[in-house]
Amino acid sequence: MLWLSLATAVVLSSVLMPLIIQFCHRHQLYDRLNDRKVHSDSKMPRLGGIGIALAFILSIVIIRIFQIDEFHQLYDGYRLWPIIAGASIIFLTGLLDDLIDLTAWQKLTLQSAAAIMVMLAGYRFKFLVVPFGSGVWNFGLFSYPLTFLWIVGITNAINLIDGIDGLAGGISGLAALAFALFFMFTSNVLPAEICLALVGSIIGFLIYNLPPAKIFMGDSGSLFLGYVLAIIPLLSQYKGFQGTDIGVLSAATVLSIPIFDTLMAMYRRFRAHKSFFSADRKHLHHQLLDRGFHTSEILLILYSLTVVLAMVSLSMLFIPLSWSFVLNVAMFGAMLLYFLRFSRPDREKNMHGPL
């Protein structure tokens, strides 16, 4: 059933996208042009997130129906309704923002509600596997603020990197595939199916979003992807410690490009005494464009880097946990140093300097 969830999502997403494109053209639901946009097409459909979300949720429901007799035995108590309900709230939040423009505080309030919903259902980062002491560092009550910041942060981080054709979808798809491989190697069936359903829904979208794009995912897609990607690592700790675990460190390593791009955006706005919710044109993909890279080259660079990050994150499956821990810390630190160097004021003045 693992690959059925992937195939079902690919088919649903790829079939839905042309219908959504036609719907957007018929009702003139196009992406809004502004100073931070890199495209010039004033008639670009922006509701691809509808296809991503529907394909993902429907594929999970279909797989659930096919496995109804073995569900409780196979999945040992996983509760899907908080995840689907929270993802639906996030999707509707993004859709409303695409259609009528919600305020930043309205979006944050709804995102917080969706995060709290899954946290109260038991999906939290409860511990971190470490190569010292007892081997497990329990977060205790700190698990609540940590998980809340993680969910809201990743939800918005994917939204912020959605700046050029194929970027947010590609990075999200590769991250979801990395998580799927982890759950497949550790024989966690339902989380693996959820990951592959997300991968499939993204593949169907990328068929129409890779350059030159025919449709954008909009906030309904980017916020939805960010939320689901934030929830997936929590699945490995839902039923308690089972040995090998994704954990917050490995999950952050996979997603370190959107994480650090978001943190650097917050730093720039703090330094400029601007609101954290204000927009700018200095994200990583913008700066690479300003340095003369083409969209396809940027995708190749950032896709390749995401694959490397995923391999480091999955190293726990093939090497001792102590080595994997050190490798993840080193890679995460290297990404931090790179983004700090990339965001220096003298770099911003000399936009055509070497990387």
TrEMBL record:
InterPro entries found in the cross-reference section: Glycosyl_transferase_4, PNAcMuramoyl-5peptid_Trfase_CS
Pfam families documented for this protein: Glycos_transf_4
Annotated keywords: Cell membrane, Magnesium, Membrane, Metal-binding, Transferase, Transmembrane, Transmembrane helix
Compartment(s): Cell membrane
GO cellular component, one term: plasma membrane
Topology with respect to the bilayer: Multi-pass membrane protein
Name of the protein in its database record: Putative undecaprenyl-phosphate N-acetylglucosaminyl 1-phosphate transferase
Amino-acid positions noted as binding Mg(2+) in the UniProt annotation, renumbered to this chain: N159, D219
Enzymatic class: transferase
GO BP: cell wall macromolecule biosynthetic process; cell wall organization; lipopolysaccharide biosynthetic process
Domain of life: Bacteria
Keyword Amino-acid biosynthesis attached: no
Organism per entry: uncultured spirochete
